Amino acid sequence: MRQVRSRNAVLQSILSAEPTIRLVVFLGVLAAMALWEVAAPRRRREIPRVIRWANNLALVIVDTVILRLTFPILAVGLAIMAEARGWGLLNNIDAPLWFAVVVSMLLLDFAIYLQHIMFHAVPGLWRLHRMHHADLDFDATTGLRFHPAEILISMGIKLVVVAGLGPPAIAVLLFEVILNATALFNHANIDLPRRVDRVLRWILVTPDMHRVHHSVDPRETNSNYGFNLPWWDRLLGTYIAQPAKGHEGMEIGIEQFRTTRDLWLDRLLIQPVIGPASGHACRVVINYGSPRVERLFAVIVDLNCGSQPRPALSDLPCSWLESVAPCDRRCGAQLPTSAVLCYRP
Of 48, 72, 168, 296, which is most buried with the most CB atoms under 10 A? Predict the structure, then answer.
């Protein structure tokens, strides 16, 4: 009994220090990645760091203020409330703490993965999320660059998951801290040794793995959705190992916003209402090897290649929602295991 009380006291002290813990880890990882980027960059910088960093970090402040003003309680606080009131699955089953923590962190990470796919697939959400992809360089601050409306929607989804799952508050805190740290790490412009990258990407999303997701090529943009764990991409077939043009040759960003002026805070905030909801959300390519991925989407149709060559993915029409199953054997070599989603702009 004394050990239980002691453990609970430790947990409570950790939870009460949540803001300090998150801030210290955030600043520490950001500083470490910034120094690593200067010492050993993976790619040459195209845009002056002062322009991008000033506006990306200003956006973090705007996001934080709006989030705190909008939600009276955030994920860790809701987990504490759920535990006290018996809300959620894990608060109604008899499971050891370690099991509940592990399961909670896995399921929370899977929820983030699915949410990320949703922000690419739904045109209205893509309008918000494309601001993250419109960065013209790729470094640690790109991992902080999210529209305030996307931050609010993401927090709303997270709160629903926490209320339904009932995870221990310590698991939510660990997940939040680790997710923020890994987002800075896997967006960093650091030259991780190739041998280390090959091993590490089996247990953690590495910068080389996630950088593919920021390619201007729609096929690559709509892959490697994981922020923390790489397993969901591998299991559900959304994994691409390397960009077609290599990491030095690949182009970062999206077609619609390619001027330095588009990197300023005022333009970032109004970006969702500029232009059509096209770009990568209009031609989403998902490699899959399992029907489980097909069931995530609404319409499955066959692509009748016939005797004609299969059209390039960039030439496929975007006038209606479609998902193209693998071609038959006549053109299967051209599209072995992939799906194409197309949305009305």
Answer: 168
Residue-wise pLDDT tens digits, 108-149: 999 999 999 999 999 999 999 999 999 999 999 999 999 999
| Residue pointed to by tokens 């360089």 | 137
From 242, 168, 180, 164, select the one nearest 210 (Cα to Cα).
242
Quote the tokens at residue 271.
């970006």
Q: Give SS3 for 276.
A: coil
CB atoms inside a 10 Å sphere around CB 61? 10
CA–CA gap between residue 207 and residue 192 (Å, rounded)? 8
- β-strand partners of 342: 322
Alpha helices for the chain (secondary structure H): 2-16, 18-39, 49-70, 75-85, 97-121, 123-133, 148-165, 169-186, 194-200, 207-211, 218-221, 231-235, 246-249, 265-270, 291-294
Do residues 108 and 167 lie in contact, with contact meaning Cβ atoms separated by under 8 Å? yes
Sign, CA torsion 153/159/165/169 = positive
Per residue in 61-107, pLDDT (tens digit) is 999 999 999 998 899 999 999 999 999 999 999 999 999 999 999 99
Contact 19, 232 (CB under 8 A): no
Q: What token pair was written down for 224?
A: 């490697």
DSSP 339: E
- 311 vs 147, higher pLDDT: 147
- Give the pair of three-digit tokens for residue 39: 């010492």
What are the DSSP calls for 266-302, one per residue? HHHHHGGGSS-S-GGGGSEEEE-SSHHHHTTSS--B-
Is the Cβ–Cβ distance between 87 and 167 less than 8 Å? no
Q: What is the pLDDT of residue 326?
A: 35
* C-alpha–C-alpha distance, residues 187 and 182, integer Å: 8
Instruction: Give per-residue pLDDT as tens, 210-243.
Output: 999 999 999 999 999 999 999 999 999 999 999 9
3-class secondary-structure state, position 139: coil
End-to-end CA distance of the chain: 61
Give this prediction's pTM.
Answer: 0.78
CA torsion angle for 191, 215, 187, 62 (degrees, to 10)? 150
